[in-house]
Each structure stands twice: as C-alpha cells, then as structure tokens.
Write a structure and sequence with these properties.
Largest sheet: 3 strands, antiparallel
Helix content: 40-55%
Order of helices and strands: HHHHHHHEEEHHEEHHHH
Shape: globular
Number of helices: 13
C-alpha cells in the first residue's frame, strides 16, 4: 500500500509544498489507515459520512488521544482539500475525550543526577534540552549557525508549526559546544573531500550547490555514518537519531533509582517549571518555549507545588 501510485502522488505533493518528513510520514500513515478502514475504496468515492465514521471509530473504538485524532483529521483535510480539491464542510464526528495530563517534571537535583550519569553526546543533548527548553528534534537539528556563543542564544528553525524562535543558551554549555563545533567542522571537511556533506533542508542544495561545504550548515550533533537523503537520494550526513538519547536516559534513570517515567520531553517540562519557580514571567516562558497559546504554558503552574502562588498546605499551619 505504501508503494501505491496514489500514496506516492500524495507524498510528492507534500514535498512540493515543503512539508516536513515527520508530517509526511504521519499524514501518509493516517490516509492509509482511512483507506483500509473503508476496505480499500478510493477516497474520491468516499465523503463526509465515511470521514466522520473513521474519526468517530478512532475516538470511540480505539480510544485515541485528542491530539492523535487531530493529526488524523489534518491528514484527511490535506487529502481532500489540498490534494483532491474537494471541500468537506462540517463533518460532525465524535471528538476524542480531552485528556488533561500533568507533565512529568524533575527536581533540579534529579536533573543534575541524570546529567552526571550520562556521557558524551547524550549528556550534551540533555543539557541543551534542559538549558534551552528544546524539543529533542529541535536540538538534534541544530546547525552551527543556529548557536550564538557570544550572545548566549539558540535559534530554532522550522520548529513545531514551521515557526522560528530564539531561546536561551546556558553559559555552562559554551566550552563543550566550542569543542563539538570544531569536531563537526573536521567531520564536514573529511566528507567534503568525498564530495558529500550535511543533509540540507528542502531545495537548498539545488539553489546553493556549494552550501554543503559551508560550516554554517553542519550539524552540531552529526551522525556517525553517512546515509541516503530520503528526498534527493543523494549521499549525505544527517544528525544523530533520537534513540541514542532515549536509551541513555532509560539506563541513567535506573542507575539513580528514579521511579518516574521520563523522556527527552521531561527536560523541556522541567525547564519551564523551574523558570516559573524562579519567578520569571509566564509570558517570557511562553516565548522561550514557542507556544502559540498562553493556556499551553499555564499547564506548568499546576506542577509548581508549594511554589504555586505561595500556597502552603493547611496541615503545615497547625
């Protein structure tokens, strides 16, 4: 199914529009699920009723989270409105239950313990996640030009929602960043001698054929091996994979006896919570995280404990 001419045409259309590889994979997954749900009928023969039935099935039968249902809806909206040029109108489907889950947050001591247990790239990536409030994908995609060691800031390009933003850079990261940048440039120079370089976004390689030789475009956390670019088919060097950090975190958590389910995103949650605990304005934190809606940032006020609005348990007043 993934190799069908129809899905390949959808993929090509998304690439023409500049969609990210992650979005491409997610949309193709849900479009494929939708087609299979309707017994492999062509989407042009289906309509609002079938779309509503599929989205309702995800909510009622599969019990998916509301954000998962939204991704499926966005995939089908792209399929019909942008690819097939068919307007859908009001679908009238059952919404998935909105789940309010508080983020897992570590204390400053626990963050320090985790970082101490890590080494190499895993340690450095976690320091960036916690020190700058980055998503792990944003951290791994950082290029040399995105880090300003003098102004202590990081530029996140094409973040969630295709937005650029700037956030903090911890001064304690500067010494090892200088070494890593030098190491990355050395790797790039060896690659350039073979006629290859870092993978480049969108059609940049065609517009600027020599861009792969510029240190500005080299990843700060380059992969240890070369690979084939999924869009151009050219040999290149991508960044490290997220699994490296996930595996290291799992081991580090066990070593320190941490009985919490942590992930890379836990350090972004901890970054926001600790800034609010320190008295920083919530709108400043919102900007650093890149949230569109202040309500998204306000979730962290619910995990502040005794620091939330100076509230003290009545038991402690007895």
């Amino acid at each position: 199914m993934s190799q069908s001419p129809f899905l390949r045409a959808i993929r090509d259309d998304m690439r023409l529009r500049g969609y990210s590889i992650r979005t491409e994979h997610a949309y193709l997954h849900w479009i494929k699920r939708y087609i299979l749900f309707n017994h492999k009928r062509h989407p042009e023969t289906l309509g609002k009723e079938e779309i509503a039935a599929f989205l309702t099935y995800l909510a009622v039968e599969r019990h998916v989270a509301i954000n998962t249902q939204k991704v499926a809806l966005n995939a089908l909206a792209f399929l019909y409105q942008k690819f097939l040029h068919i307007e859908l109108g009001d679908l009238g489907f059952s919404l998935a239950t909105k789940q309010r889950r508080l983020p897992v947050v570590l204390s400053a001591v626990q963050v320090a313990q985790i970082i101490t247990e890590l080494d190499g790239a895993a340690s450095q990536i976690v320091q960036m996640l916690y020190g700058s409030g980055l998503r792990v994908s944003e951290c791994l995609r950082l290029r040399i030009q995105d880090v300003d060691l003098d102004r202590l800031c990081v530029t996140v390009r094409d973040g969630k929602g295709n937005k650029d933003r700037q956030t903090l850079l911890a001064a304690s990261c500067v010494p090892w960043l200088q070494l890593r940048i030098s190491s990355s440039i050395a790797i790039q120079q060896k690659d350039n001698a073979l006629g290859v370089g870092p993978s480049l976004p969108h059609a940049l390689g065609r517009k600027y054929p020599s861009a792969f030789r510029s240190p500005a475009w080299m990843f700060i956390f380059p992969s240890t091996t070369l690979c084939v670019h999924p869009e151009t088919g050219e040999l290149c060097r991508h960044h490290l994979h997220e699994s490296l950090v996930r595996k290291a975190l799992s081991i580090a958590g066990q070593k320190i006896g941490l009985y919490k389910k942590i992930s890379c995103h836990t350090f972004r949650h901890s970054f926001a919570t600790h800034l609010l605990q320190a008295g920083y304005d919530i709108r400043t934190v919102q900007e650093l995280l890149g949230h569109n809606d202040l309500k998204t940032t306000q979730i962290y006020t619910h995990v502040l404990g005794q620091h939330y609005a100076g509230t003290v348990s009545p038991l402690d007043r007895l």
